[in-house]
Specification:
The complex is a heterodimer.
Chain A lengths: L1 H11 L4 H14 E12 L6 E12 L3 E5 L6 H8 L7 E6 L2 E2 L5 H11 E4 L11 H12 L5 H11 L14 H14 L4 E5 L7 H18 L2 E5 L3 H4 L4 E6 L2 E7 L3 H10 L4
Parallel strand pairs in A: 3-8, 3-9, 6-7, 7-8
Antiparallel strand pairs in A: 1-2, 1-4, 4-5, 9-10
Chain B lengths: L1 H9 L2 H30 L12 E12 L6 E11 L5 H6 L4 E7 L2 E7 L6 E7 L8 E6 L6 E5 H7 L6 E6 L2 E13 L8 E4 L9 E6 L5 H11 L9 E2 L2 E4 L3 H5 L2 H38 L1 H9 L4 H40 L14 H27 L18 H23 L3 H38 L2 H13 L5 H35 L4 E4 L7 H6 L4 E14 L6 E9 L8 E4 L8 E5 H6 L7 E5 L5 E10 L8 E4 H6 L5 E8 L4 H11 L4 E4 H15 L1 H27 L2 H9 L4 H39 L8 H28 L2 H4 L5
Parallel strand pairs in B: 5-10, 7-9, 16-21, 18-20
Antiparallel strand pairs in B: 1-2, 1-11, 1-12, 1-13, 3-11, 4-5, 4-8, 6-9, 7-10, 8-9, 14-22, 14-23, 15-16, 15-19, 15-22, 17-20, 18-21, 19-20
Helix pairs in contact in B: 1-9, 2-7, 2-9, 2-10, 2-20, 7-10, 7-12, 7-14, 7-20, 9-10, 11-12, 11-22, 12-13, 12-14, 12-22, 13-22, 14-19, 14-20, 14-22, 14-23, 20-23, 22-23
Classes of the chains: A alpha/beta, B alpha+beta.
Chain lengths: ~270, ~850
Amino acid sequence: MARELTPSCRDTAFHSVEDVQTITERETQVHAVALHAVQKSYGRGSSAVTALKGVDVSFARGTFTAVMGPSGSGKSTLLHCAAGLDRPTSGQVWLGGTELGTLSETELTKLRRTRIGFVFQAFNLVPALNVRENVLLPARLAGRRVDRRWLAEVLRRVGLEGRLRHRPAELSGGQQQRVAIARALAVRPEVIFCDEPTGALDSQTAAGVLDLLREAVDRDGQTVVMVTHDPVAASYADRVVCLADGVVVHDVPAPGVTAIAEMLAEVPRW
Amino acid sequence: MVTLALRMLRQRPTSVLATFIALWLGVGVVTACGVLLESGIRYHGTAQRYAASTLLVAAADLRIVDGNGGDREVNHFALPSRGHLDAALLPQVAALPGVRTAVADSATPAQVLPARGTSGVAAQVHPWASAVLAPFTLRSGVAPGAGQAVLDAGTAARLGARQGTVVRLLLPSGIRAVTVSGIASTVGPPPADPTVFVAKPPGGSADVIGVIAASGVSTAALAHAVDGVLPHPAGDADGAFPRVYAGAVRGMVETPDVAQGRALAIALPSVFGGCTLFIAALVIAGTVGLSVQQRHRDIALLRAIGATPRQVRRMVVREAAVLAVLAGASGVWGGFAGVWWLRDQFVHRGMTPGDFTVHVSWLPPLVAAATTLLIAVVAAWVASLRASRIRPTEALVESSVERRRGGWLRLLLGLATVAGGVALAITAERLRGDQGAGVAVGVVATLVTAVWLIAPWLNRFAAALAGAGMRAFGVTGRLAAANAAASARRLAPVLSSVVLAVGLGGSMWFVQTSIAHRTAEQSHAGLRADYVLTGPALPAGSVEALRDVAGVHAVTGIVRGVMLDRSEGDTQYTAQGIEGSDATFDLGVTSGSLADLRPGTVALDRLTAETVHAHVGGEFRAWYPDGTPAVLRVVAVYSRGLGFAAVTLPAQVLAAHASGLTSLAFVSADPSARTALVRVLDRVAPGASVVDRANYQAALDKELAQNAWANQVIVGVLLGYAAIAAVNTLAMAAMGRRRELASLRLAGTTRAQILRMVRAEQALLLTVGLAVGGAVAAATLLPMVRATTGTATPYIPLTGWASVIGGTVLLGWLATLLPVRRLLRVNPVEAIGIRD
């Protein structure tokens, strides 16, 4: 579905601003996140590196997308731009009906803590806080109350009810990642972004974490965008977007593990 | 957020401890300064001799008017000696309604000696009429008549004197034998100084009028009435004028020494407290900055999951505020302990009179805690600007990368501050005397701030410079060079704290040693006399009597006091009055001649001449210790002012305007004349002693060391503070390398190699710190030494070099290697865990 939309998005570059608005408004009905002609360069002059070379991609509501690609393909940059952690050099990022480029740093941060959830590979939790406090942190930062029943449900789902007073250092890697997922779910965000969430985990623990993400999509209608280079992890997704050298080279709905591995193998390495 | 801040603090004990120690010491020292300052302000001595008086009239202050017209400012400075009062004043005051009694008083220092023997009691001689002001009442005997005296009970007991006993009074005018007519005592505690009453005061004119109100007359009404008969100076007239003193300030009139102690108790904490606050600001900015740097990843994570830049800033600032409040609550007690110790030392060393008391109120500790809190918050706010610039994506990258060296703004600001410091140093070079020394303290402050600003570039420059050499030492050298280059910014607070310690120690300490050394040197070089006669005042005529002793070639009588600056009433010049020969000492006259010295003329030391822009043939305007204006023609300028005195006058001129001067005599004589000298001395000035030159100079050196004590305490405490700050930042920086060292070990670096690497880095850092600190010290020390000693070369004792260099190296080593050793004991796999 996103595939079909992409060419039309490219065309919009030549339309008037009003046209863009109309099109994107239509899109936001279906899409949690949409990137239009996103370019990102680091550095200046001869040492400049372009990580994204005009990417158009959208993520529909209630779907689980895996973003793949070799190291240096720009997948992490894509995630950072889509999540409002970083600003594109040019192009637009829409979260629902909000264009992130128009927001100030503080507005962007406020948007992140209420509408976006994060799960990173590591260094995910605030070491000084216990499990419960870590989960509640985004809500606390936003000065919001958390629905107690929902919180209990989230904690039950990640299986950490008994460890609420533990510090991150006292938990295993898999448990820490579950806390991170609980934290992401607790605010009921529009999208959860995951950056190699299973990168530091063994396959069995990883499966548990991926099941949790899948469950969030299937039961709660969450939108999940996950960067990974593990074909097994990607196979949990509804759709695999593959990047190479800053552009989207494949966009396949729910391929199997083998198909993903083959797809990755033929992607040109940078 | 406060809970979060507190939780995050608990997670980082080293950085918390470092900041806390800096704050605690800051609060402690500032509290001590504040309490001392308040005690000084409230200290007026104790009215004992004048306890029964309602009010006193005296010319005890020098009035100096600054500016003119509307913004005229009238300042009063306590005089070292009370000015004489017009004899016509007493009858006018006595005739006022509401006055029960008005009596004139004067105090003449004297030795009370038994009829035979040389050991006496130093006392003050007063007219018997003034006894009612205490009041002293006769316990036995009768009031003194001509040739008689009344002793206070204590003095009588010490001398074993009773009614009818003959005692001798050694007065400035000579020895007088008197018969004890009675013994008197006070109802309250006796005055600190032994008291002798005679019928008519030996000094002549009165310098205090004591007034006792008639019953039912209020002090205020009486003060107003008395003030009405006093001559009032014209609006802009400077000088000592009679004023009315009522209440506690009567103590200052009674004992002019109180003013000296009071000035010390006010000046010392003012300078000291300011320096401490400055150091505290630098240190706290450094430690908070370091802790932000080390929590860089935590902060990035908070930013990613939704903390706004403002929230991050608030968190950092609140952490510092919480620490400052805790430090404030506990630090003030340390300050109290310190101030009591200081008070005991002051009294013990005679720097303040014994009745100087510590006055504790809630104000100084509150101000100290609040000021420190303010500094902590401002310093943390500056550091938090960096924290809020941390980008959320930095939480996602594997390792923390050294950020840019810092903005161009910082470099420009730093260079501008360097320029400012240098300009200030040049100004200090031009100024002379006290002004120069004051500016020089500002030079250290400015230059250290500048170093803090440009430290990232300094570090990088040093790393580039030393890199080639370090790389020659194999892999550890390479690593060290790479680290030094990569962590230029991280080490900025570390470098500046080392520079602060070295710069401060190298300037404030060595200016003391330079002054002491120059003083001793000049005194040793200039003293030609073979013997020095010291002890109680040498009465008039002693010089002539001594000169006539066989074998004596030359005798100089010397009285020592001060002269007050024409426009700065609190600036004093050491002064000596000389009589007799000028052959017993050599002042190092550079122009003019001492032979021309007579009443109406003066000789000045070169530094003083430069300060007041005077030259031979020109005019020197100043105030005598009793507030009499002095307009004197300069007849000579000499170089050995530190060793002798800044101002040289004829002895009778200085003695006429001051009481209680120290007097001594320089005698050039054959060794055979010594016995004869002692015999003559026992006759004309019993109790004085003959000291040969070597012993006199040894005693003088000891006294110099004693006088430098207050400065040594200041320098010691500030230096200690700076050193602790340096150790703090060094240890913090070392503890923050946990992950880095762990990954090096995982990569196969051995413990020994890591220690070698750290040592090489440390050597570079300390070398840069010593070099830059040395430069800061030199820029401050040289103008300061020139301003105070007149010579460009400072004197730095061997122990000074050793302490500054050795201390820096030793502390730097310990503060880094001990934490690193501890880090190396931890399993690297654990150390690389979730925190950095």
